[in-house]
Design brief:
By secondary structure, the chain is mainly beta. Helices cover 8% and strands 71% of the residues. The chain has a single domain, classed as Porin (Beta Barrel).
Length: 207
């Protein structure tokens, strides 16, 4: 699916959500969060921190943004690695309640990856400088389920098309509200192509 067709499908889906007449009051779509992120794949491993926000701009519409700084610890076919990845995401989503304790959510973001550093390929005597950029988009369809009074579950499916790579991942998130507007958030997504697991553990503050 090319980018133009994807945007048309996404806009149609969001307009369908926005055209409904029943409002949901159960879940907050205005919050900030931050924490630890780890990516473990067959081709390498990276970890670092992630910070993001969501802003409930309208009754059924929210704006989202995210920044991650990752340090690559291991890379296939390289004996020495010193690579940083700066990832920026910005986009929007639509949400709609189908039950008192369940919302359906569709998010779409533009993704910009900046990759810089040095790596020494196996067998080489010196490091190769790396300065690369990858752009694309990510779409996530999920459900927010109030499983218990303080526990929310978010099963999801994510499609990524960034640079020359595309993949579909499936995952689950948990949000535990331990004190007023403060919650612990855990989210894991597994992508099959490179056997990649993307894990986030952090704090969320409702605003």
């Amino acid at each position: 699916m090319n980018n133009k067709r994807f945007l048309v499908v996404l806009a149609s889906a969001c307009l369908t959500l926005l055209s409904q007449s029943v409002a949901a009051k159960g879940f907050s779509y205005t919050y900030m969060e931050g924490g630890y992120r780890n990516i473990d794949a067959d081709s390498g491993e990276a970890d670092g921190f992630e910070a993001g926000f969501s802003f409930g701009a309208m009754e059924y519409l929210h704006i989202i943004g995210n920044y991650s700084r990752l340090w690559v610890d291991d890379l296939d076919n390289a004996s020495s690695v010193d690579i940083d990845v700066d990832e920026f995401k910005i986009g929007f989503g639509g949400h709609y309640p189908i039950l008192d304790r369940m919302d359906l959510v569709l998010d779409a973001v533009y993704v910009d990856d900046q990759i810089t550093g040095k790596a020494r390929p196996d067998g080489a005597t010196s490091k190769t400088r790396i300065n690369d950029k990858a752009e694309g988009y990510e779409a996530t369809f999920s459900a927010r389920i109030q499983a218990l009074k303080k526990l929310e579950m978010t099963p999801h499916v994510t499609y990524e098309d960034v640079g020359s790579d595309s993949d579909t991942g499936f995952g689950l998130g948990l949000v535990y509200n331990f004190y007023k507007k403060f919650s612990l958030r855990i989210k894991g997504t597994h992508f099959s192509d490179d056997s990649t697991t993307d894990l986030f553990i952090g704090m969320r503050v409702d605003l």
